[in-house]
Amino acid sequence: QVQLVESGGGLVQAGDSLRLSCAASEGTFSRYVMGWFRQAPGKEREFVAAISWRSDSTYYADSVKGRFTISRDNSKNTVYLRMGILKPEDTAVYFCAARKGSFYLMGTYDYWGQGTQVTVSS
After folding, report:
1. What is the pLDDT of residue 28?
2. Rounded distance, CA 33 to CA 53, Å?
3. With contact defined as beta carbons under 8 Å apart, do 91 and 10 qualify?
4. Do β-strands 78-83 and 58-60 pair in parallel, antiparallel, or remain unpaired?
5. Taking burial as the number of CB atoms within 10 A of a residue's CB, which of 9, 57, 76, 89 is the most buried?
6. How far apart are CA 66 and CA 48, in angstroms?
């Protein structure tokens, strides 16, 4: 039901920052757990960050903890990923995703965006 469209990717230098946006179609956006994933060439898609319905809880992969910040604005049906101190190993296609259910319970992300390329040069 929900459609997701990422934007904000691009080519940056190591140490730079970038903010990705993911706009969702109208619906029950506020009742979806939102997440960001990434996939580097030759690697499986990996989890990056997730945020609960009311932004009261977040969770990050160890590889980005302290550097990335996930946030959401339910009034705009948008989730963001602020990426700082970018490293070449952050180079990947970044996907936003949505799932129903509670942030505090395991669940499957059923809705995915098309992805946006982030390339970090050294």
Report:
1. 76
2. 6
3. no
4. unpaired
5. 9
6. 12
Q: Is 29 helix (H, G, I), strand (E, B) or coil?
A: helix
The residues near 75 (Cβ < 8 Å, ≥ 6 apart) are: none
- Output the six-digit token pair for 95: 């996907």
Angle at alpha carbon of residue 39, lines to 72 and 32, rounded to 5°: 30
Measured distance CA(101)–CA(90) in Å, rounded: 29
Token digits for 63? Answer: 């590889």
Lookup: tokens for 34: 């939102």
Bridge partner list, 40: none
Nearest to 10 by CA among 112, 113, 83: 83
Cβ-proximal residues to 46 (8 Å cutoff; 6+ apart), any chain: 37, 38, 39, 61
> How many whole angstroms separate alpha carbon 65 and alpha carbon 79?
18
